[in-house]
Amino acid sequence: MDLTMFPTLLAQEASPGTGETAGSLLEQFRQEYLSADQLLDMAAAWGPRLLAAVAVFVVGRWFIRIIIGMIIRAGRRAGTDETLLGFLRHAVHLLLLVIVCIAALSCLGVDTTSLSAVLAAAGFAVGMAMQGSLGNIASGVMLVVFKPFRVGDYVDLSGVAGTVVEIQMFSTVLVTPDNVRVVVPNANITGSAISNFSAEKSRRIDLTVDCGYSDDLKAVRAFLQDLVDSDPRILRDPEPVVAVSELADSSVRFVVRPWVDRADYWAVRFDLTERIKLGFDERGFTFPFPSRDVFMHQPDAA
Fold this sequence. Notes:
The chain has 302 residues and is an alpha+beta fold. It is 53% helix and 16% strand. Mean pLDDT is 81; it is low at 14-19.
């Protein structure tokens, strides 16, 4: 089928005096060049290529899943960190998918050599336009190499606190304590402070307790010390601290600072807070409210 005549027919449409409309020209083209025989010839010429391209793409995707599965299993057998495995899975999947797409285009007769040059030029242009995304990739590599946190750690990243679920090429996925999935760009993580609450085995609980100036200071201190000493979950090394920290405007301020295992942090904190309130009520200690003395002067009637 000679399709080079189609531009000639369109040129005839634009020439004055032909008396033919665009519809008649297209109908003539369809009758002359898109007959049943011509369509069969086109199907015979392009059908095998199209089927081969689809087969390469489908089989290639299948092989990608197999290869990634082998990498993950081999990494886990070798004891590789889950953080690194998740990052490698995304990077290998993207690279192999590009190779499969190029192979599928080759089956269609596309010149992959020129395509590679075009992709290189396009990649340079896109890279200049996506400096932020490339920064996220570089930050992801830094997170995997230096490991300020791992999958499963409870961290605070860019003001978002949660458990690390996955470290991807462009972002890190967290799940907050109320089960909200948050995606934080990697560049934001490396550009700010990282708080890893799971890095150390123990943590210190910081509580502030106020009592009134009329309360027995020694009795309040003894109660708080006995409360800390009686809890078996509180560590003896480092030694817990119970001390007067400040003489505030309307109260005497104590600090209670025991050390506990990381897993017991919230349970011990909640229990201590409740037991302090109940103990104050039983012993008659007061929690003073902020107060202010107001003096009123009235002038003499004379």
